[in-house]
Task: inverse folding
């Protein structure tokens, strides 16, 4: 496993701190240590979801400019923390995990989070981790939240394309 400083260097080289990519929201006031949160994302999530939140061509959900729509209902918000790779993350400090998720929502998610979305807290993460998803079809659960975001929160219908439901293609 790579040392944390090495990941910080990689994260900084790929997307230098202070760089606000198109659609990103500045992280000041949301995350105490944006460099550490970005590093945690690269180390824990970037291998599958892409360093900049673009997972293509992998058949995983793209996060860039989309993941914030999941913050529009309490159920979808909880879903993000209950995902197995989040709830069972090797990051045991709940505030550190909250910062990682806030990086995902407010940086990678760009402007997709509804106005007034409050950041995750360590306490919220600690609570939701207790209910980690394990026995449900994650694809079906994700599809349910995508439909809710489209119907109830004004997310674009194109969100279905980036969070595919294989059952719908059959």
Result:
């Amino acid at each position: 496993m790579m040392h944390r400083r090495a990941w910080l260097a990689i994260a900084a080289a790929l997307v230098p701190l202070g760089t606000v990519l198109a659609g990103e929201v500045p992280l000041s006031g949301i995350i105490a240590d944006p460099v550490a949160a970005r590093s945690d994302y690269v180390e824990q999530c970037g291998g599958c979801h892409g360093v900049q939140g673009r997972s293509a061509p992998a058949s995983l959900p793209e996060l860039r400019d989309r993941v914030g729509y999941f913050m529009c209902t309490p159920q979808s918000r909880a879903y993000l923390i209950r995902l197995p790779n989040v709830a069972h993350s090797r990051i045991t400090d709940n505030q550190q995990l909250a910062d990682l998720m806030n990086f995902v929502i407010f940086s990678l998610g760009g402007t997709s989070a509804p106005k007034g979305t409050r950041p995750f807290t360590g306490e919220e993460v600690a609570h939701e981790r207790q209910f980690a998803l394990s026995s449900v079809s994650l694809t079906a659960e994700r599809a349910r939240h995508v439909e809710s975001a489209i119907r109830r929160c004004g997310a674009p219908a194109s969100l279905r394309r980036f969070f595919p439901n294989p059952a719908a293609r059959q």
